[in-house]
């Protein structure tokens, strides 16, 4: 459970959520000597502090778009901006959480969570003229992140001693310790059992409400998208184009049997070509 003091500490330390602009972005890969079009003229804006879910057929290009926004790849065509500045590479303000938590097995939970701050400290030592940084100590930042995801008692555990849900919480803590302006989530709960997945959806919403970073969240689960997001962007088959935008102003916490969510689910499924 997240205590009010921890929420206040993290919210006070976290930057304002980033504004993300994706302008006429197209992307293609070279595959066996041929060009494979993945994204087709995608236009999308994420407001500061907004939670946006990306939904579409498997392999349509959603994860590719996340990689572009994170700065891990560059688009074939178009422009990506974070707070008005071009995205030309990775940045600590834009943190990615993948489906596989990829924790280092030889590091404790605490030392896995502390990877980002450690790297930032080394970078500052190499560049003494670098910009001012978070005044909290690394230990304070790690403690706050562990408390926020409910892993304080498991700080000294190793990844093999954690359940699947706890491992994903550790991955979230590793992202949150950097005080991100944008959290990029690529099917983060896809490998969890159904009950753990439901709990983690609620945990993610609470973390977002506490810190108000912006979120881009890829999922194949229509209900999951509607339970967590302010807005759902529906993509076509590859090459991905935006075919619908569904706004969801239902109050949190949301329940799957809420008539409003049931109606929105039908609407989204129809956009995906599934009349059920």
Describe this structure in words.
- The protein has helices at 4-13, 62-70, 109-113, 115-126, 138-148, 164-176, 194-211, 222-228, 259-271, and strands at 20-31, 34-46, 51-55, 77-82, 85-86, 94-97, 182-186, 214-219, 231-235, 242-247.
- The protein has 276 residues and is of the alpha/beta class.
- It has one domain (4-271): 3-Layer(aba) Sandwich (Rossmann fold), CATH 3.40.50.300.
- A 6-stranded mixed sheet has the order 6-7-8-3-9-10, with helices on both faces. Strands 2-1-4-5 form a 4-stranded antiparallel sheet, with helices on one face.
- Strand 4 (77-82) and strand 5 (85-86) form a beta hairpin.
Shape: globular
Count of extended strands: 10
CATH top level assignment: Alpha Beta
Question: Segments where pLDDT lies below 50 for 5+ residues?
Answer: 1-15
Q: Please give the CATH architecture.
A: 3-Layer(aba) Sandwich
CATH topology: Rossmann fold
Q: Which percent range fits the helix content?
A: 25-40%
Task: Tell me the strand percentage band.
Answer: 15-25%
Radius of gyration, in angstroms, nearest whole number = 19 Å
**Residue-averaged pLDDT, rounded?**
85
Category from helices, strands and their pairing:
alpha/beta
Task: Give the biggest beta sheet.
Answer: 6 strands, mixed
What would you give as the CATH superfamily?
Answer: P-loop containing nucleotide triphosphate hydrolases
Count of spatially separate domains: 1
Please tally the helical runs, counting DSSP H or I stretches of 4 or more residues.
Answer: 9
List the secondary-structure elements in sequence, H or E.
Answer: HEEEHEEEHHHHEHEHEEH
Q: Order of strands in the sheet with the most strands?
A: 6-7-8-3-9-10
Cα distance spanning the termini: 37 Å
């Amino acid at each position: 459970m997240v205590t009010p003091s921890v929420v206040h500490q993290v919210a006070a330390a976290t930057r304002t959520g980033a504004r993300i602009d994706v302008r006429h972005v197209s992307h293609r890969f070279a595959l066996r000597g041929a060009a494979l079009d993945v994204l087709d003229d995608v236009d999308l804006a994420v407001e500061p502090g907004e939670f946006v879910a990306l939904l579409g057929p498997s392999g349509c290009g959603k994860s590719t778009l996340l990689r572009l926004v994170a700065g891990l790849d560059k688009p074939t065509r178009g422009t990506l901006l974070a707070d008005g500045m071009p995205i030309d590479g990775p940045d600590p303000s834009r943190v990615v959480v993948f489906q596989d938590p990829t924790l280092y097995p030889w590091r404790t939970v605490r030392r896995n969570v502390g990877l980002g701050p450690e790297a930032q400290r080394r970078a500052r030592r190499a560049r003494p003229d670098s910009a001012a940084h978070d005044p909290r100590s690394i230990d304070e930042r790690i403690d706050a992140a562990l408390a926020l995801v409910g892993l304080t008692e498991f700080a000294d555990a190793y990844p093999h001693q954690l359940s699947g849900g706890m491992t994903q919480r550790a991955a979230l803590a590793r992202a949150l310790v950097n005080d991100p302006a944008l959290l990029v989530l690529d099917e983060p709960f896809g490998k969890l059992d159904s009950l753990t997945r439901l709990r983690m959806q609620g945990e993610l919403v609470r973390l977002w409400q506490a810190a108000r970073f912006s979120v881009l969240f890829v999922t194949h689960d229509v209900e999951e998208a509607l339970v967590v997001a302010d807005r759902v962007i529906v993509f076509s088959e590859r090459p991905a184009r935006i075919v619908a935008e569904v706004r969801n102003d239902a109050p949190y916490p949301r329940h799957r049997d809420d008539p409003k969510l049931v109606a929105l689910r039908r609407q989204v499924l129809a956009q995906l070509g599934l009349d059920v």
